[in-house]
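hey so i finaly got around to running the thing on Tryptophan 2-C-methyltransferase from Micromonospora arborensis. pasting the sequence first so u can double check i didnt mess up the copy paste, my clipboard has been acting weird all day
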Amino acid sequence: MSRGLVTLVNPNKVHPPIAPYALDVLTTALEHAGYTVEVVDLTFRRDDWDVVVAEYFSVRQPLLVGVTVRNTDTTYALEQRTFVDEHKEIILAIRQRTTAPLVAGGVGFSTMPFALVDYFGVDFGVKGPGEVIICELADALVEGRDPRSVGGLLVNEGGGRVVSTSARLPVAGTVPMAPAGYNEGRLWQVNRVDSYHRRSGDPAKVDNLAYYRWSGIGSILTKSGCVYRCSHCVEPDAKGTQFARRSIAAVVDEIESLVAQGVHDLHTTDSEFNLAIGNSKALLREIVRRKDADHSGPLHQLRLWIYCQPAPFDEEFAELLAGAGCAGVNVGADHVRRDLLDGWKVTAGGSQFYTFEDTVRLVELSHRYGMQTMVEALFGMPGETRETMRRCVDDFMSLNATVTGFSLGLRLFPYTALGVRMAEQCAGVRTVPGLQSNTAREPIVLRPLAMCSGPVEYERQFMFDDDGNFRLVCYFSPDLPEDPARVSDPAGRWRQSVQFLWDHIPAREHYRVMLPTVAGMSEHDNNYADNPFLLSLCRLGYSGAFWSHWRERHSILQEAHDRGVLEAVNG
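ok and heres what it spat out for the C-alpha cells, dont ask me to read them lol
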C-alpha cells in the first residue's frame, strides 16, 4: 500500500530538451521507500505549461511536490540568459493550486541554494544529491514529525531567513564554510547501490525515449561529486567533495535498459568520467564482458560519449572505451599555459594534474581507436592576455581534433574558488577589474560571506543587484585585448577579444572550430539553449553528441532549410 503521492516537476523549458535524470533518481528512491511518484514534465509543454499545471493539480493532492532546477542560467558569459524567473513563475502557479509543501533541488539550484529557497518561496531545499533527503522528508510528513529532524535539509523560515539542519553524518577531513555548507562531502546523500529506474512511454514518469528522439542523446551517471578543486567549477560544492562511486553492475544494468528501450547514444554526466579511472576501467570491462557473453544483446547498439580531463588517459583506457562502444571523447583541457593552469585546474592539494602533452596523447589515442574528439578551451581567467590566447589557439589547432571549441569569460558562482576569491578581493568596498554583467548599472562590488548577514545575502549578489534586478556576475581577464574604457565599464562587452579569435584562426579552418560570438557576429555559436543548429539536428533525426556533427553544420542547416525545419525552429 502506498504511503502517499509525491509529485516531481521539471520546469526546464530549454530546447533541445535534456532528460531530467535527477527525477529518475528521485523516483527510484521514493518508490523503494513505498511512495507513489508522478512526474509533471513541462519541457515538451513549454508553451502551455500553465494548462498542464492547472489540470494536474485540479485532480491531484500530493503529500509533497519536488521541483528540479538543472540550470540557473546558460552559464554562457557572452549571453547571460537566466532561467530562474521562468522557474519561479511555474512554482508560484503550483503554489496557487496545492497546499502540499514544496522542496527544490538540482545541480543548478545547489550552486546558490539558500538564495533560491528564498527567491522561489519554497518550503524546503536540498543542496547536492537529493534521493536520501527527499525520502526522509516524505517520511517526516507522513509520520507528523518536524521536518527539521531531516538532516541536510534547507528550511525556509520566511523574511529572507533560510537555515540548514545539520547533516546526518559528519564527514572527516572537510572544512565547511559554515553556515553555508560549502566544501562538504556528500557521500551519504547518494544512492550508490541501486540501478535507477529509467522508463519510456509512461506519461507519469520521465519519458527517456521521447527525450532521445528530440535531443539525440541520453545520459548515464557512474559517480557523483569530485575530489578535484578546479577554481571555476561548481561540481565539488554542488555535488560533494568526494567521489560517490555507484555499483558497477547497477550502472551497466541501467545502460542495458536504456539501450533496449531505443536510447542508443549515452553521454556520461560524471565530473569527469576518467577521474577515478580504476572505477571507470572496471565499468568498461563489465560492458565488454557482457557484450562478449551475449552477441545479440542491446549493449552492441550502445554508442557512448564521454566527458573527461586530459589525464589520466592511457592506452588501456582508450582500448576499453572503444571495446565498450565509445564514439567520442570531449576533453576539457581549457588551456596550454602552465602559468595559467597553476591554481586553476588542480587537485584537492592544489597541484596541476595534466600538461598539454597529456591532451596531445588523448587525441592521438582516441583517433587511433576510432573515436572522435572535441577539445575545449576556456579563455578569460586571471592573467589571460592576447598572447596566452594566441598560444593556446595555435597549440589546440595543431591537434587536429574533430572539433575544437573556444569559450570566453566565466560565470561566477558563490562557492567556486574564483567566486570566493573575487568576493574577498572586493571586500564590500571596491570592484575588481574584470567583473562584468550585461545588465550592470554600477560597478560590481561583492561581499565575502563573513561580511554578509548569511548565505542568502551572500549568494544573491551573484545573480541580483541590490534592487533585486537580475545581474549575473561574470569575469573576463582585464588583460585581454580590450579598450580600457570597456574594461572599466561593468556592462562592457569583450568584443575585441572575440574578434581576435575569429581573425586569428584562418577562415579555411572555421569548419572545425566553435567560436564565441556576440550579437550579430555569426549565426553559429557554441551556446546550447535554443540553438538553431542543434534544434535542426534533432528535428532531422541526427543522434549522438552535437559536436560530432559540427563539421557538417552548413549542409545540415541547408537540409533543415530545404525541408522547412529551420523556419519552424526560428518561428
